[in-house]
Design brief:
The protein is mainly beta and about 160 residues long. The chain has one helix and twelve strands, in the order ββββββββαββββ. The strands form three sheets. Strands 3, 4, 5, 8, 9, 10, 11 and 12 form an eight-stranded antiparallel beta sheet that branches. Strands 1-2 form a two-stranded antiparallel ribbon. It comes from Anabaena cylindrica (strain ATCC 27899 / PCC 7122).
């Protein structure tokens, strides 16, 4: 088995290059940790293309990049006493739109940052409250917040 190479060219057996685990992460908005989330989705982007058909050329088309699109970020967490995200959403429903920046960080077992993405100029556009069911006494109550934003960038 080949040994992993460090950037400096030496061999490294003390730090494996395994994929990062996707269960240990945190979300900050404007530098403040806004709670432990159980799920974050929407970390992707896409380049929209302009298709151009050249006259007389029937075996191919040209494709040119136009612009980037980003889906909404969806944050899911257990419902608790903190209501900062609800207040932000409520402000938007009243016409007070605050565009906030944030960071999503994947952490290792010692809580050190492994990788992070920044999102810019976000505000909430949807909130889902918990599903309440008296027949399941062990179910956690979750809330879901959906954010529109102007881009996700690797930090």
């Amino acid at each position: 088995m080949a040994k992993a190479q460090k950037k400096g060219g030496g061999n490294s057996q003390d730090k494996p290059h395994d994929p990062y685990m996707g269960f240990n992460f945190m979300v900050e908005i404007e530098g403040l940790t806004v709670g432990g989330f159980s799920e974050v989705t929407g970390l992707n982007s896409k380049i929209e293309l302009e298709t151009y058909v050249e006259g007389g050329v029937h075996h191919r088309v040209h494709q040119f990049p136009k612009y980037m699109t980003y889906p909404n970020l969806v944050l899911v967490r257990g419902l608790g006493e903190r209501d900062d995200l609800w207040k932000w959403y409520e402000d938007v429903t009243r016409g007070k739109i605050r565009l906030l920046n944030g960071t999503i960080m994947v952490r290792d077992s010692q809580q050190s940052k492994l990788i992070a993405w920044n999102f810019k100029k976000a505000y909430p556009v949807a909130w889902d409250g918990p599903q309440l069911n008296a027949s399941n006494g062990t179910q956690v109550a979750f809330e879901r917040l959906e954010l529109v934003h102007r881009g996700v960038y690797k930090a």
